[in-house]
Structures are given as C-alpha cells and as structure tokens.
Amino acid sequence: MLLLLQDAQSVPLIFSPFGAIPADELERWLEHADLVLPSDLIQFWQLTGGGDVFESETIFRPTVYSPPNSCFVEDDIEGRNAALTEKGKSADLYVFQQAAFLSAIRLSDQRFVMLTTGGYVVQDFFDSMDEWYRQTLREEFGERYGLPPIGV
User: Looking at residues 98-109, what average pLDDT do you find?
Assistant: First the structure.
C-alpha cells in the first residue's frame, strides 16, 4: 500500500480523497490523453481519485471523471496543466500536485519531480510516489500532523 494511504489510515485527517476511479475508465482517459504515467500514481488514482493532503495540498483528479460544474473544476488535471503550459511549463512536465510547491511527472523518464515556483525548473526528482511523498509533503507536514518518523 502507498505510504500516503498508510499514513491516512493512522491519521485520517491528513487526506480527503475525491473518490476512486475504476481501472478501465482510468485506462481510457490515459489513452485519450495520450499519456504514459507511473503505475503508482495510476494506482493512487484508482484507489482515491486524487484529493487534498494536509488540508492545503491537492493531488489533481483526471479530468474525464469530473462532470461539468462539479466540485472538481479547480482540481482538474488537464485544465491545470494547460494553464501552466500557457505560463511557460514544458510539455515534458505533467503537473499532478500543487499548493506549497508544484510537483509533476517528467514524461521523458517517468520520474516524480518537484519544481521551482517561478520557472518550472526541476528542483528535485524521485523514483516513486512513496519517495516523492516522503521527501516532500510528509517531510514538510508530517510532524505537525503527528506522523511518526519513518522507521520508528
């Protein structure tokens, strides 16, 4: 199980999921969007549909599953990426999280990356969603929310 979801089991207040997305629907969306994304992010969306983490951080929801005028309008991943591309984000970066900082998948190598706020420059990269979560969101907010250090 993904570390974020394990943490949410022990401290439920840290994560508010948007709602699971069936695997076949998510597959169709990926095909339609012509995207290849890491399997752990896809698994996360299948289980949760994205959501709000530590109250202030949002992991966006795949657009196809947000009905018009739904509560997911601001959390629409395709719309958010289109807007950020207009502001200078590289097409090789597919943003999936935003708030205190911006995170994306670097499509060319499938790595999770943390971006600088002003110029969409890769500040750090991670090989998995667990590594990304542990070294970004959990490191920033975990202690404040009562999560024990990893390995304790």
Answer: 95
Fold entry, domain 3-145: SMI1/KNR4-like (3.40.1580)
CA 24 vs. chain centroid, Å, equals 20
What angle do helix axes 39-48 and 3-10 make, rounded to 10 degrees? 30
How far is residue 95's CA from residue 107's CA, in Å, rounded to a whole number? 10
Task: Kindly tell me the burial class for residue 35, based on how many C-beta atoms sit within 10 Å of its own C-beta (0-12, 13-18, 19 or more).
Answer: middle
CB burial of residue 99 (10 Å; 0-12, 13-18, 19+) = middle
Residue extents of the structural domains in the chain: 3-145
CA gap 33, 94 in Å, rounded: 11
Helix (H, G, I), strand (E, B) or coil at 128: coil
Q: What's residue 100's pLDDT?
A: 86
pTM: 0.90
Map residue 126 onto helix, strand or coil: strand
